[in-house]
Each structure stands twice: as C-alpha cells, then as structure tokens.
Design goal:
There is one protein chain. This protein folds into 3 domains: 9-99 and 247-344 and 486-528, no CATH class; 108-229; 357-484, no CATH class. Helices cover 24% and strands 31% of the residues. The protein has helices at residues 32-37, 43-57, 64-71, 201-205, 209-213, 263-271, 276-279, 284-307, 345-351, 365-380, 395-413, 457-465, 471-474, and strands at residues 10-13, 26-29, 73-75, 82-84, 90-92, 95-101, 108-116, 130-136, 157-163, 170-182, 190-197, 221-225, 245-251, 253-262, 325-328, 331-338, 355-357, 388-393, 421-429, 432-441, 450-455, 476-479, 485-499, 515-528, 535-538. β4 and β5 form a beta hairpin. The longest helix is centred in the middle third of the chain and has 24 residues, at 284-307.
Length: 556
C-alpha cells in the first residue's frame, strides 16, 4: 500500500541508540515501508496508516503527541488468547501477558545487627566468630530479594565497611563466611551470617579490646567477595541464579469510530453547489465532518492512552469473568468476550509508585534532579550511556525553570554564563517546528547530565481549562522514556455497510434512500516495559520552583 509522501502522517523516531532522548530524535513520514523495515507487515498496521492518511487528506492537522504515539505502535496480534468458559464455549481474554527482563542488583547488603557468636572460642569455633544480621539495602537501585541466605555461601569472603559512630573512624573488616541461615522477621527478608575474621585464633586473641572491636560491627554495609578454595579441597556450593523474567499484565480495549451518511444527504449537498468548479468538490463538507470527527476521536484516544483506568474493580486477572459481557446480538446466552479498559501510561506508572503528588507545593528541582538521576541509571542498566533526560510540561513552568536555572548557575559558579544552558532549541521537519525545548547542563553533584525541558500546547490547554482555585492540579511534569513505551495494537477491523437496499419497505421503490456506514475499530493497550525508566510529577503550585545551591568555598 503506497501513499503520496506529502500526505503521510509523520512519526518521531526515538530509540535507545540516541540515548533515549527526543533531543536526538528525527521526524519521518510514516509509510507501510516504515513498519516493514521493523518487521511489522500485518495488514492491520497498514490499515492504521490508511486511516491516519485519510484524515490528513481531509485536513487534520498533525499533533506532536500523536506523532509520538504513532511512532510507538507495536503489533501484538499474536498475543490474543482464548479461555474456556464452558464445555463448548470460549472467550477472548481481555488481557495479554508480556515478559519483562529485570536487572537484579545483589551487590550491597545492609547490616542491621551484630553480636558475638555463642560458640566463639569453643568446639573449634574461631574465638572472634561474629554473627551479623543483614538485609536488602535501601538504595533506589537495589532489588528487594528474598531468601538472602542463598547469597552468602560458606567459604566466601565478605567485606564489612562501617564507621565507629563515636570517633567517626572508618573500618574495613574482612571475614570468611562460616555459615548463613534465614532470619526473616516481620515480613522483612534477613540473613544471619556467622563469620570469622581474617586472623588466626592466636592472632585475634593477641589483639587489644580496641583491636578486637574492629571485627565486631553492628552497622554498615556488606560486600561479597570471591572465595579462596584450592582444587584439592572439597567445595561444592552453588550460587543461586535469579529468574530475571517476570510477567506483566496489560488490558485490551477496543475503540470504535463510525461515519455514516445517506444518498439523500449527498443530493442535498449537490443541490447547494451550483458551479461546475464546486461540483468537483461536492463531498468536501462530508470530508470536513470526517476531519472533525477524527480529531475528536484521536483526542479521546490519546487521552485514554495517557489516563485510562480500569472499567471497574473487577478488572483483575482473578476476577475478569465478572466484567461486562459481550454477547451475540441474536443469542444473548453466547458470551463472546469480556470488556475491559486499557490502563493508560499515567495509571501504569501510578500503580508502580512512579508518580509524585506535590500537594500544591512549589515544584522542587532538587527532587526533580534526584528522580531524573535515578531514571538515568535505570535506563543505562540495559547498556549504553544516557546523557540527556527529557521532561515535558507547560510553557509557564518551563519559563519558571529557565529563570531559576539562570540564577542557579550564577549562585553556583559566581558568574553568569550561557555555556550551561541552551534555550529555544527546536526539533523540526521541512522547516516546520514540532517541538521546542530548553537544555540545561547539570553539575555532577546533582546528576551530571543534561536536562531537556520540552513544552507542548497540550499541557498549556489543560492548564488554561482549570479554574484558578484548581489550576495546581493541572500542572504536571512528564519524564517519559518513549523508547520504553509501546502502543500495542492487537487487532484492527473495519466494515462498510449499506442499509435499506433489501428492506421490504423499499421493494417497490426504484431509487431507495441508501444509508452508508463506515465502521472502524482498533483493539489496543498501553505498554510500559519498565516503570523505573519513567516518572511523573503532579499537582504543584504556580509559585517559583525551589532549588538548593550546594558548593564549596576556599579556606583562607
């Protein structure tokens, strides 16, 4: 299927090879070849392109957010599954499963307690034997693991780094693992380690009380080191291997669009057009209607893509059979499927704790920088380097950030310089500007990356629509990794119907008033593979944002 290039809708191509940033994105005319190059040759994908192209021919002005959504289309047709609900009946499940590969971090462990081993110095036990209780570290980059004792194999070495809280002296104590046991308590995963210091029994006994105290930590962090085992020794302990795959559930929603008209309506249009020139375009009013209808459909659709929520409380994998039923119109006892709503991007992130309600306080750039750095680290976990983090917001918030950042640089470095920021950068196509952004270079102590602040009328319009007393609710900052977000298309369908032709009332009519129907549907879902690569901040005031300027001074 081919379309003239000047009528193709466009996509914003952004992928991980560009560092997951829109600042390095390119804008392309979307053609079937684009999808063929990506391996998506389904007819349904071409149908989406055809619908979008038809709308553009009818005069629909492209929206940058739509360009982003179209670039994230992914074919998930093969994911549709059926479930048996009776001896001879089955229904299409309203959800699909996708696999996610997680990054497991098991490098650092937090010490919560330390006591002398009860058997220390007896029955062959080392006199300096020490029991440590360890748990998962609190780092945002850590992984909440279970059965922690599996990570501490007898014979391995561990390094305990801690400080004496009375003297602030740093200690690095090396131990050999004698044994490890499960010590879970109160729903918290713990491991009880029995350790021997890297000293002989006589060497330990020769130490002063202060020297022995260095091998008696009660806090700090544990790092697991390699074992030291000879080939002549018997040692057959095996490190555990976590399953890095997990199943994600995404709910399918079918959205419909209908266009209808009658022959008599077309005759009325013809009657009002007198000149031969206008008769060449007698269907333009119908095309105008289709343009308006498509704009409204797309607006409602991408609102759902961003904000959609469950159809009711029964939209869970365990209770989906309680959802509204779709039945055969001629046989109400025949259940064809269950209806569900696709969960929007914002909803998926909120379900995973990746949104922040500022509760009407001014936007905190300290928090924004901290969250952006975490997002950067999570995006880099799959390989590569991410040097720019994008955020999207309204023009007023973007302007306030620009004012504050110029003051920030002056306070930070004691001078005014534009080398740290680039205002009014543009992402354009054929001399048409699609996105405008300001780019800031953040110091290493607040992240050491570039922050690109994009603006879009979508955010301005939402802000303007709210009453002044509620405007803080409209203010938002999107920190979205568009390479991780996918708009999954499970199915597309269409039908062209004509009525009244075979109707008994028209059997004796030579020219029936035929009604025409164009029906289109798309079964879709929003897919977020890794919520940690995204963050959304909501509900902050229009007051100036806040930021802390940290720095060092020279002692004279």
């Amino acid at each position: 299927m081919a379309f003239p290039n000047n009528c193709n809708p466009r996509i914003i191509a952004v992928d991980q090879s560009t560092g997951c940033t829109l600042t390095r994105a390119s804008i392309l005319g979307m053609t079937p070849q684009v999808f063929e190059n990506q391996g998506y040759t389904e007819y349904g994908m071409d149908k989406i392109i055809a619908q979008a192209t038809e709308a553009k021919i009818a005069g629909v002005t492209e929206n940058t957010l739509e360009m982003l959504l179209m670039s994230r289309l992914t074919n998930i047709k093969g994911s549709l599954q059926k479930a048996n609900i009776g001896a001879n009946e089955s229904v299409i499940l309203p959800y699909i499963y996708r696999r996610q590969k997680r990054n497991i971090n098991s490098n650092y462990w937090t010490v919560t307690a330390g006591v002398a081993n009860a058997q220390a110095g007896t029955n062959g036990m080392h006199p300096g034997a020490w029991n440590l209780t360890v748990t998962n570290n609190a780092s945002p980059f850590g992984t909440p693991l279970v059965k922690l004792e599996q990570y501490f194999l007898p014979g391995k070495n561990v390094l305990v780094e801690y400080i004496n809280t009375s003297t602030n002296v740093a200690y690095s104590a090396l131990f050999n693992i004698i044994s490890s046991a499960n010590a879970d308590a109160g729903g918290v995963s713990n491991a009880l380690l029995t350790l021997a210091p890297n000293l002989t029994a006589s060497g330990f006994n020769a130490l002063t009380a202060l020297g022995k105290a260095a091998f008696q930590p009660t806090a700090g962090n544990v790092i697991v080191l390699a074992n030291a085992v000879s080939d002549y020794e018997s040692w057959c302990y095996q490190d555990n291997a976590e399953n890095t795959q997990k199943l994600l559930t995404f709910w399918l929603q079918t959205s419909r669009q209908t266009n209808q008209y009658s022959d008599e309506y077309l005759k009325a249009l013809n009657a009002s057009l007198t000149s031969n020139y206008f008769k060449q375009f007698r269907e333009l009013p119908l095309a105008e209607q289709k343009r308006i209808q498509h704009v409204k459909y797309m607006r409602d659709w991408y609102n759902s893509v961003f904000y959609g929520q469950q159809i009711n409380e029964l939209q869970t994998v365990e209770t989906y059979t309680g959802l509204p039923q779709v039945q055969d119109p001629l046989n109400p006892n025949c259940v064809l499927e269950y209806k569900a709503n696709a969960l929007g991007l914002k909803t998926l992130l909120a379900n995973c704790g990746r949104t922040l309600d500022h509760q009407g306080n001014p936007l905190s750039l300290d928090n924004l920088f901290a969250q952006a750095y975490q997002v950067k680290r999570f995006r880099e976990a799959t390989g590569g380097t991410v040097d720019t983090i994008d955020i999207m917001t309204d023009r007023f918030t973007a302007g306030a950030i620009l004012q504050l950042m110029t003051s920030f640089y002056k306070s930070k470095y004691g001078t005014v310089s534009d080398r740290f920021y680039s205002p009014n950068e543009k992402l354009s196509f054929d001399n048409q500007v699609s996105l405008v952004y300001n780019k800031y270079e953040l110091p290493s102590d607040v992240g050491g990356f570039h922050l690109a602040v994009f603006t879009h009328p979508y955010f301005d319009d939402k802000l303007a629509a709210f009453a002044p007393a509620q405007q803080q609710r409209a203010r938002t900052v999107w920190m979205i990794d568009w390479t991780d977000f996918q708009l999954g298309i499970a199915a597309t369908n269409s039908a062209v119907r004509q009525t009244n032709i075979a109707d008994n009332l028209y059997n004796c009519v030579i020219t029936p008033n035929v009604r025409h129907y164009q029906l289109n549907s798309t079964t879709w879902t929003s897919i977020v593979e890794d919520p940690n690569r995204h963050y959304v901040i909501d509900n902050f005031s229009g007051a100036c944002p806040t930021v802390t300027v940290a720095g060092c001074t020279i002692n004279s």
